[in-house]
Structure formats: C-alpha cells, structure tokens
C-alpha cells in the first residue's frame, strides 16, 4: 500500500503540466522584465505606464479570485479595498509620512480590518444577499471618502509625490514603479498559488464545491471563508497603494461600484479559480479599453460582445480557452 | 445495562401541522447495526438529519455515549464521532478520490489554518486516507477524479469518507440508493465488514439487505416508531405487516 501512496502522491501527469506552466510563467516574467527597455527603444514609453496599470488591476483581480473563484463568494465591493489602500497612502502622505515601509503595512492592515468586520457580517448571508451586502459596504466606504472634506472629498487628493522606499526615492520613474509592481504581483501570485493548494486552500475549495459535505466531515466553512476574504482585502489594499503611486492622486472614484463590477469582469473573463487567469483578464480588459476607446466612444458595446463570446465559448474564461487549445495542440 | 452509544428520547419535529418525527425514542448499543425502515415519507431522512445535527429538533434529546449532543451542530457532532453519509451522493466531484478522503482525515488532525505547505503531498493524511479507501475497496481508484467514478463506487467513496472521520457511529442514509444488484452486493459486503468495527444506524429500502445486516431494527411510520426489536420479532409483528411489509410484498 505504501507504494500505492507513493505512486499517487507523485501524480506524474499533473507534475508535467505544472512544469510547463512554470516554464511559461518564467517566459512571461522574462518578457515583462525586458518591457521597459524595449518600450524605451521603440519610443513607446506609454506602454510601460499601461502595463503597470494592467498589473495593478491584475493584482486586485488576483485577490478577488481567491474570494470569488476559490471561495464562491461573489463580492461586489472589492474596489473598496483598492480605494482604502490608496487613501492610506494619500492620508499618510498628507501628514508627511511618505515611506512605503509605513504606507503599505498601514494599507494592508486597514483593509484587513475592514474585511474582517464587513466579512464577518456579510458572510452570514449567501448568494444574492451576499452580493447586495458587499455592494452596500463598498458604497458606504465610497460615500465616506466622498464626504471626507479634509482629504479632498469628491475632488480627490493629490499626493506630494511618489512614495519613498526606506527613505530612498526609488520609484520616481515609471520603469522603476513598473518593476516594483511586477515584483509585488509575482510574489502575490506565487504566494496565492501555494495558499490554494495548502490545507487552508483545500478546505476553501471543498466548501465552495459542497458546504454541507464539509460540515459532515467536521469543517465549518465560515472561518475559512472569512480568512480568505481578509487575505484578499489586504492584497487589494496593496493594489491601491500602487495605484495611488502611479497616479500620484487618490480619488473616491477608485472605489465606485462600477470598479467592483470591472474587477468581477476581469476575473470571469480571465477564468475563475485559476489565479493566472484573472491577471490575464485584467490585462485584456485594460488593453481592450485602450484599443476600442481609440476607435469609438461606444467601445463598451464591443467589450460586451467580446465578453459574451468568451463566456459562451469557454466557461473557464481565457484561461479555460487556453487550456482547451493546449489540449488540442 | 451499559450506556447505549446512541440514545434518542422523545424526539419531535413538525412542519406546521405535519408531524414528521413524532415522539421517537430508540437506543443503539455499541457494536450494533440498527436498521430503520419505513415506507416512503415515513420521516427516515428527517430523523437522520436530526441525529446528525443538520436539522434542529423541536423537542427531545440525543445522547452520544452518555453525552447530551442535542444542542450541538453537525460539525461538533462529527468531532465527537458521529458521522453520516448522504442519500443523494454528496462527494466533491472536482477533487481526486484520495483528496475527498484526505480532507476528512485533515478535519481531525491538527489545524487547517496552514497556508503554504501543499496539502496534496501530506503523506500522513494520504496514508490514513488510503487505509479508508482500502477498507471500501477503492484503493486502486485513489488518483481518479471523484466525479468520474461509477455510481456504486461513489457510494463506496461516501463510506470511505465517513470512515475517515474516525466515527464511532455511522449514520448511513440509504447507501444502496440507485445501485444495481452487483453494486449492491459489494456495498452489503462492505457494511457487513464495517459492522465488526463500527456501530451503525442504517436507513435502507432494500429489505433483503436490511434483514441480512441488521442486529435490531425499528419501523418508522408517519414519524412514529411502531415496532422495535430483533429482525425476526419485527418481521412477525402484525402492526408492521399491516403498515409496511405487507405493502412491500404485495408490490
């Protein structure tokens, strides 16, 4: 029997797939690392700005995937965490605290606490009620910031400049910010990949698939769902920190419910429960926005058509589509 | 008399005017296989829900090994050794067979708030899960996706999951539901083997299986226990024949 265990835990087919996945990830990472240089050489520096924005929203969509894709919790207030993270930077900056070493933990802790409190209440409900309640909390955060006149209210809050890192002005330039965002995204992606495969992740996935079954073997889903919600909130807060730095401006618009909706679109478009998918989904959505907006003011219509096509063609989103093509090839 | 492992007293549950569980009392001794039979709509599954804790009772008590578990949730009861299987197959289709069982082992071994170590590679969990799979004859299916199993194999997997919780008492809700004769034979054989190590409350429609396996049985009709005792006594009980077995034989 021990040989049987060994054989099964070796799982050769999956290993091979994971290996090619790792190779692919390495390739993408290398290409991204070369992007600022290539963009500079090609005389297209705005590409770096766009790519940074894609990765920031990719980070936020990635965190939402933990909640939505692995926890089956349709949170319609995820942009609130981006906004809170951004405001952590803005408000600290207004008081002369400009270092990321303070701002980032402050943002993560604020968002984690907000997630803990709102999640503990929201997770008493499921389905449509959960959607409504998270939407309501998101809107509460939004209107709180709109009415916070001391920090710009509706007009938003300009930063005095980009944050420093350990006292050094490291991310003044766009390429430097690009690399920071890339590093944060890569670390978050790798960390969450481990999380979803861990004991915790297995309970979360099991509860998504069949909560009653999980209770019947002795797991209460709630603490696991709440923990996932808190982790996701903190990561989205970090996306907010980066977004504030890119724009050097903080606005309540970051946390509007339309933004939350866009994050859900990114996750679904890219492929729920795949981690990489939502990052790709974020990039695709932003790319489409840029390209389609160039041709027509009614670009959202075209976007709608594409979204319908992707969802119909492959329930697994872009990631599912890629896997399908990969299998056929 | 020693304390019964499961002791149910005056259990009731009503939906409006409908008494689904009506003053049910029964004792299940340690090591016994106690079958609960009754016609459709007799309230058998409701009773299982009340015993497992997924449905609160209106009144009455449930004691497990002398401890009052009436106010406890299903999760708390599982942790005290009371596991159930489901009438409608309820496994994690997207998980491997091994993972389905390993999760049940994981539920009772240390904390599951561990975030980085890959759970699929935990040899201790997998080894215990394999023992349970071996017991139900699914060891060679361990690496398969649970959703790809045949119906009978899924029922076997249900048993393996219940076993892996380290239950003292198994509540089996129609384990033979929807199975063909060959699958049935395998499952009956399994349950006979499980009797040696576990106390079992079995709800089942298949009378051949029930009479082959049960040490004692209770007959539930309209939420009431109309007879309880050894199979032969119950079989010859005129009330039972009138209410239930006669119907079955006529059909």
Automatic annotation (TrEMBL), chain A:
The way this protein sits in the membrane is described as: Multi-pass membrane protein
Q: Name one Pfam family in it.
A: BPD_transp_2
Q: What is an example of a GO molecular function annotated in this UniProt entry?
A: branched-chain amino acid transmembrane transporter activity
| Source organism (scientific name) | Methylobacterium terricola
Question: Could you tell me the superkingdom of the organism this chain comes from?
Answer: Bacteria
Gene Ontology terms, cellular component aspect? plasma membrane
Q: Which residues cross the membrane?
A: 51-72, 79-97, 103-121, 128-151, 176-196, 222-243, 263-288, 300-323
Stored InterPro entries: ABC_transp_permease, LivM-like, TAT_signal
Any idea what this protein is called? Branched-chain amino acid ABC transporter permease
Read off the PROSITE patterns from this record. TAT
Q: What does the UniProt keyword field contain?
A: Cell membrane, Membrane, Transmembrane, Transmembrane helix
Where it sits in the cell: the answer is:
Cell membrane
From TrEMBL, chain B:
- Sequence ranges assigned to domain ABC transporter in this UniProt record: 6-247
Q: For this UniProt record, give its keywords in alphabetical order, as a comma-separated list.
A: ATP-binding, Nucleotide-binding, Transport
Q: Which PROSITE patterns match?
A: ABC_TRANSPORTER_2
Q: Give the molecular function GO annotations.
A: ATP binding; ATP hydrolysis activity
A single Gene Ontology CC annotation of this entry is: plasma membrane
Q: Which PANTHER family match?
A: ABC TRANSPORTER ATP-BINDING PROTEIN (PTHR45772:SF2), CONSERVED COMPONENT OF ABC TRANSPORTER FOR NATURAL AMINO ACIDS-RELATED (PTHR45772)
Name of this chain's protein: ABC transporter ATP-binding protein
């Amino acid at each position: 029997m021990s040989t049987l265990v060994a054989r099964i835990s070796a799982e050769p087919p999956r290993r091979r797939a994971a290996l090619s996945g790792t190779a692919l990830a390495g390739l993408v990472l290398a290409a991204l690392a070369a992007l600022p240089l290539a963009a500079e050489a090609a005389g297209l520096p705005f590409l770096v700005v766009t790519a940074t924005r894609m990765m920031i929203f990719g980070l936020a969509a990635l965190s939402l995937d933990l909640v939505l894709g692995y926890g089956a919790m349709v949170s319609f207030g995820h942009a609130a965490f981006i906004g809170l993270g951004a405001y952590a930077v803005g408000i600290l900056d207004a008081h002369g605290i400009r270092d990321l070493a303070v701002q980032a933990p402050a943002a993560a802790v604020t968002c984690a606490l907000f997630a803990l409190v709102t999640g503990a209440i929201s997770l008493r409900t499921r389905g449509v009620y959960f959607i409504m309640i998270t939407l309501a909390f998101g809107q509460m955060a939004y209107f709180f910031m709109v009415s916070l006149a001391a920090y710009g209210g509706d007009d938003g809050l300009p930063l005095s400049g980009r944050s420093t890192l350990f006292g050094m002005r490291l991310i003044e330039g766009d390429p430097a910010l690009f690399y920071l965002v890339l590093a944060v995204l890569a670390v978050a992606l790798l960390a969450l990949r481990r999380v979803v495969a861990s004991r915790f992740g297995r309970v979360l996935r099991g509860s998504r698939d069949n909560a009653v079954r999980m209770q019947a073997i002795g797991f209460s889903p709630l603490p696991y769902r709440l923990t996932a919600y808190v982790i996701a909130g903190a990561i989205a807060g970090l996306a907010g920190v980066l977004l504030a730095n890119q724009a050097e401006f903080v606005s309540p618009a970051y946390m509007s419910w339309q933004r939350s909706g866009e994050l859900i679109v990114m996750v679904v478009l890219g492929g729920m429960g795949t981690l990489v998918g939502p990052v790709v989904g974020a990039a695709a959505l932003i790319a489409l926005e840029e390209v389609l907006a160039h041709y027509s003011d009614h670009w959202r219509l075209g976007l709608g058509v594409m979204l319908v096509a992707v969802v119909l063609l492959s329930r697994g989103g872009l990631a599912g589509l890629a896997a399908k093509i990969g299998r056929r090839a | 008399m020693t304390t019964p492992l499961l002791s149910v007293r005056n259990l009731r549950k009503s939906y409006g005017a409908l008494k689904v569980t009506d003053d049910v009392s029964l004792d299940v001794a340690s090591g016994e296989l106690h079958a609960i039979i009754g016609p459709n709509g007799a309230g058998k599954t409701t009773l299982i829900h009340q015993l497992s804790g997924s449905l609160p009772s209106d009144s009455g008590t449930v004691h497990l090994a002398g401890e009052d578990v009436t106010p406890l949730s299903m999760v708390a009861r599982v942790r005290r050794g009371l596991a159930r299987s489901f009438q409608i197959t309820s496994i994690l289709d997207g998980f491997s067979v091994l993972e389905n069982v390993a999760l049940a082992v994981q539920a009772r071994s240390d904390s599951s708030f561990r975030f980085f170590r890959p759970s699929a590679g935990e040899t201790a969990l997998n080894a215990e899960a394999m023992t349970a799979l071996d017991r139900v004859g699914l060891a060679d299916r361990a690496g398969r996706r649970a959703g790809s199993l045949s119906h009978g194999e899924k029922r076997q997997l249900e048993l393996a999951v219940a076993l892996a919780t380290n239950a003292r008492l198994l509540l089996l809700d129609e384990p033979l539901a929807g199975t063909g004769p060959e699958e049935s034979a395998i499952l009956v054989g399994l349950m006979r083997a499980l009797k040696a190590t576990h106390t079992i409350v079995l709800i089942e429609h298949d009378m051949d299986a029930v009479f082959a396996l049960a040490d004692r049985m209770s007959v539930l009709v309209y939420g009431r226990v109309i007879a309880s005792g050894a199979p032969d006594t119950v079989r010859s009980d005129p009330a039972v024949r009138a209410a239930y077995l006669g119907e079955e034989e006529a059909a």
